[in-house]
Amino acid sequence: MDLVTDMSEEIDNTKNQEWIDGNIDRLLAWEIFTRVAQGKEMVPVAPLDLCDRIGVNKEYVHEVIQQIKSRNKDAK
User: Fold this and answer.
1) Mean pLDDT of the chain
2) Residue spans per domain, the chain
3) How many Å apart are CA 64 and CA 66, to the nearest integer?
4) How far is residue 36's CA from residue 8's CA, in Å, rounded to a whole number?
């Protein structure tokens, strides 16, 4: 029989902003995976909902879009 582990002292990484910043790609990949597994990959996700799910500020989606636009301008 397995021993029960006391998780009361365990650190919750999902509340640690430094951990979130280092794992945003992984969190986004999880959200994409779950949507595909549910057959919802073509259903739009509100930017605020996505930001809440991955633990970033509400301007994150806008910032990413601006970075992509900037890269496209630099590439031309």
Assistant:
1) 85
2) 13-75
3) 5
4) 34
